[in-house]
Amino acid sequence: MSTSLVLACLLALGFTAVGVPKILALEKMRELAAESGFPVGAYRVIGVLEVAGAAGVLLGLAVPVLGVLAGAGLLLLMAGAAITHGRKGDGLRGMAPALACAVLAAGYLAALIAM
Tens digits of per-residue pLDDT, 67-80? Predict the structure, then answer.
């Protein structure tokens, strides 16, 4: 199994798992939005971007340019997440999930470009 396939699946599962609850504005997501200073509507948009990125990395296995764009978009989303956690004062522990996802996205991009 190729590295890009494994990383694409991990990214797709992870970003779908966090994006869908944001889109649905589940109670926990409403709380996290408020803690982060985002209106619920903006948090829903972030969820849509996460799910779109998840779809894009899977499509990128067939159309590499889409995968590169999706991976770069997810990387930018995670940069924003890390900045938001930093502004909230969450520290490295609070930023860890965003940083881990950023590393996965960067690895996916590297694997896809190397194909």
Answer: 999 999 999 999 99
